[in-house]
Amino acid sequence: MPGGVYISIPFCAQKCTYCNFASAVFPADLLEAYLEALEAEVAAERWAEPPDTLYLGGGTPSLLDAAALERILAVLPKVRWNEATIEASPGTVRAGPWRELGLNRVSLGVQSFAPREIAATGRKHSARQVEQEVDEASNSGKLAGIARLDRAPRPAARLGLHARGG
Ligand SMILES: C[S@@+](CC[C@H](N)C(=O)[O-])C[C@H]1O[C@@H](n2cnc3c(N)ncnc32)[C@H](O)[C@@H]1O
Ligand code: SF4
């Protein structure tokens, strides 16, 4: 049975207040070293069977330009992906170029549509921007999911907000 490939791109534009994933704001020159190591590791893989799903997670893979994404895709087996997903933070959705590269799903990290809650995450985007990008990803027909912390258990605590009294 075909398997899936998960590739983590740990680079972020900021470290969000709630996030305990292996991700950080790294010096820009580390990206090249990371890509080279990733290319070498993937190229050395002996696939028992070619994978049919790909998940680019993170971190924030949507920060990578098309050339960097193309480098990663180039070392993977040449297959028609059933699902090829990229995780994105608001402000970084590039539906057109991703489609051209064969990425066919976007998982957008929204967290919340409430301005106060968005501010508490340490993110810089606005609720309006999120709405526009949800529209862009939806119109491209590729929106796979919206990551929301305001629907998680104890959302206020996760977002670093104190529970409102009364
Ligand atoms: C790890 S991020 C990667 C994609 C992108 N950087 C982003 O911010 O959406 C994916 C999602 O994980 C969720 N997440 C991050 N830290 C979390 C935590 N401590 N508990 C639950 N969900 C978390 C957030 O909703 C986030 O959007
Ligand atoms: S952008 Fe995503 S991966 Fe990076 S710190 Fe924020 S939630 Fe974590």
What is the third-level CATH name, the topology?
Answer: TIM Barrel
CATH superfamily: Aldolase class I
From the alpha-carbon coordinates, what is the Rg to the nearest angstrom? 17 Å
Assign the CATH class: Alpha Beta
Major β-sheet, in short?
5 strands, parallel
Strand content: 15-25%
Ordered list of secondary-structure elements with their pairings:
Layout: E1 4-9, H1 30-44, E2 53-58, H2 66-75, E3 83-88, H3 95-101, E4 105-111, H4 115-120, H5 127-139, E5 143-148, H6 155-158
Parallel strand pairs: 1-2, 2-3, 3-4, 4-5
Helix pairs in contact: 1-2
S-adenosylmethionine binds next to β2 and β4.
How does this structure look, described?
This protein is of the alpha/beta class and 166 residues long. It has a single domain, classed as Alpha-Beta Barrel (TIM Barrel), CATH 3.20.20.70. It has 6 helices and 5 strands; from the N terminus they run βαβαβαβααβα. The chain has a 5-stranded parallel sheet with strand order 1-2-3-4-5, covered by helices on one side. α1 packs parallel to α2. The longest helix is centred in the first third of the chain and has 15 residues. The N and C termini lie far apart (55 Å). The C terminus is likely disordered. S-adenosylmethionine binds next to β2 and β4. Iron/sulfur cluster (SF4) binds next to loops.
List keywords for this structure.
alpha/beta, TIM Barrel, 6 helices, 5 strands, 33% helix, disordered C terminus, binds S-adenosylmethionine, binds iron/sulfur cluster
